[in-house]
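Signal transduction protein (Amycolatopsis alba DSM 44262), 191 aa
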Amino acid sequence: MRASEIMTSPAVATTPTTPLREAVAVLTEKGFAGLPVVDDEGRVLGTFTEFDALRGIRASGEGITVGELMSVPVEVITPSTEVTEIGRRMLADRLRCLPVVEEGFLVGVVSRRDLLRPLVRPDDAIAAQVHSLMSDYAGHRPKWTVEVDGGCVHVSGEFRDEAERRVLDALARTVPGVVAVVLADRNPAST
């Protein structure tokens, strides 16, 4: 799974000239841990977090702008960044959100909540989506049985070759909430 599949887009952002009070209002009203800080063209300059807001309030807060408080340098990711890499970076650097940029411009944000959301997706919803993808791939002919337990997808049936197995594995992994894929050959019953 990649950032593009879980990111919040369009991203709510702020600018360096935004007053502290206004930025704090966005953080608290929307329930965000942080906001990307962008220039007039949408390039990410930094992030403004709850911690930055608290520093500003402690320093009196009057007349202070986001640009004076924002965290720099800012870590960013791309839409193709793998979720495992996002999680690793968030844990290692204690980040609560990461701006997603494409060709230097903000296209979304991934928060810890975005990372967690697919993990709590019901197994039946995952199974239905995986089954639908595989049915489309097979031309709507029932070829495989799909079962999901704790986000682990078990696909059983007959596979033409290793290439088809790789395609089915890749298809299943595109579904939010999938944590593992197991493909098992189903042998035809003896007569």
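The longest helix spans residues 123-137. The domain at 3-118 is CATH 3.10.580.10 (CBS-domain). ok done for today
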